[in-house]
Design goal:
Order of helices and strands: HHHEEHHEE
Strand content: 5-15%
Number of helices: 5
Largest sheet: 2 strands, antiparallel
Strand order of the largest sheet: 1-2
Shape: globular
Structural class: mainly alpha
């Protein structure tokens, strides 16, 4: 997957998880380029893709603001899950332990644009 697609997917996930809520600004492109180890133009390409999807809006001299949360599809979640499984494999952690850890995780609820634990798990 090209780097700009990886950055787009990561930003979509961050928005969907509530890390960046509706109305909030993303970090500037130069900061994102450092964070992802990418050229600023690569980051801008990712941002333009998110803008074309209606998830963010930005313009020259203005920051990128989140317009709406982007629901994640199973394909995008599977990519992230594959990374976790790969990390577990190289760390010698059995896959059954990963499945068990997932099953023990409390469900998250979106609240005021941020993902938070359900009250029953606090």
């Amino acid at each position: 997957m090209p780097l700009y697609e990886q950055i787009r997917a990561k930003l979509r996930m961050d928005i969907a998880s509530g890390l960046y809520a509706q109305g909030e600004y993303l970090p500037p492109a130069d900061q994102l380029s450092k964070k992802y180890g990418a050229n600023k133009n690569t980051v801008l390409r990712s941002l333009r893709m998110l803008r074309s999807e209606g998830i963010i809006d930005f313009g020259r001299g203005r920051g990128a603001v989140v317009l709406a949360s982007a629901p994640m599809g199973i394909d995008e979640i599977s990519v992230q899950l594959q990374q976790v499984v790969n990390l577990a494999d190289v760390s010698g952690i059995p896959r059954a332990a990963i499945v068990s850890a997932i099953e023990r995780m409390p469900r998250m609820q979106a609240r005021r644009g941020r993902a938070q634990r359900s009250p029953q798990y606090r």
